[in-house]
């Protein structure tokens, strides 16, 4: 991990439709993130978020994500979530890391529907694609499958936004460690092999 670099590891959970929901689009109902600076977690945040288009969760959504209607009803609004993001120091070196590209796609779409500005301008990193390229996998690997392939276990519960953000950070550190290990050392120059100062002394 680059010294002084700032990384935002973020994860969202989304609504799921019933069959007869017209005009449906996924809405964020849970957010979790950690802010990492110089390899240390300096801030973290987690909250449920109230959906707007379809405020009542489908049975499939509640069952799959283990999120209750009461939890989202007592959550923050989408605008309050964006206000929370605005508290994160936004510098040019901030990198937003997600597992997969859906998180940023849904956030952009939700901003579009609410006519609110997209909150980030830093570089976006899809760690699942980096993982796929690094290991030469044909298919994209799921988050918790990836960490298990390293012989580790994910943090907390899968499909819990903050836990998934922490697990993404865990994989990020493992991949970065492997990248450093596999880097080829620079070829030695003739100056590294021969001490010219000793040769010169011998000929004086």
TrEMBL record:
Cited InterPro entries: 3-5_Exoribonuclease, ERI-1_3'hExo-like, Ribonucl_H, RNaseH-like_sf, RNaseH_sf
Family matches, as CDD domains: ERI-1_3'hExo_like (cd06133)
Every Exonuclease domain range: 6-181
One term of GO molecular function: nucleic acid binding
Pfam families: RNase_T
Protein keywords: Exonuclease, Hydrolase, Nuclease
NCBIfam families referenced in this protein's UniProt entry, alphabetically: PRK07748.1
PANTHER family in the record: 3'-5' EXONUCLEASE ERI1-RELATED, 3'-5' EXORIBONUCLEASE 1-RELATED
Listed name of the protein: Or 3'-5' exonuclease KapD
Taxonomic source organism: Cytobacillus kochii
Phylogenetic placement of the source organism: Bacteria, Bacillati, Bacillota, Bacilli, Bacillales
């Amino acid at each position: 991990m680059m010294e002084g670099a700032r990384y935002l590891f973020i994860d969202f959970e989304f609504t799921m439709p019933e069959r007869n929901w017209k005009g449906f689009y996924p809405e964020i109902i849970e957010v979790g993130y950690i802010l990492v600076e110089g390899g240390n977690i300096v801030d973290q945040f987690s909250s449920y978020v109230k959906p707007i288009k379809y405020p009542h969760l489908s049975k499939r959504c509640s069952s799959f994500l283990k999120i209750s209607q009461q939890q989202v009803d007592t959550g923050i609004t989408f605008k309050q979530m964006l206000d929370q993001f605005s508290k994160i120091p936004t510098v040019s070196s901030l990198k937003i890391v997600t597992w997969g590209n859906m998180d940023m796609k849904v956030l952009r779409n939700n901003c579009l529907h609410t006519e609110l500005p997209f909150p980030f301008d830093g570089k976006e990193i899809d760690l699942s694609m980096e993982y796929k390229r690094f290991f030469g996998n044909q298919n994209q690997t799921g988050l918790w499958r990836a960490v298990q392939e390293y012989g580790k276990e994910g943090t907390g519960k899968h499909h819990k936004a903050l836990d998934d953000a922490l697990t993404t950070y865990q994989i990020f550190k493992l991949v970065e460690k492997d990248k450093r290990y596999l880097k080829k050392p620079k070829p030695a120059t003739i100056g590294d092999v021969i001490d010219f100062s000793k040769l010169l002394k011998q000929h004086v």
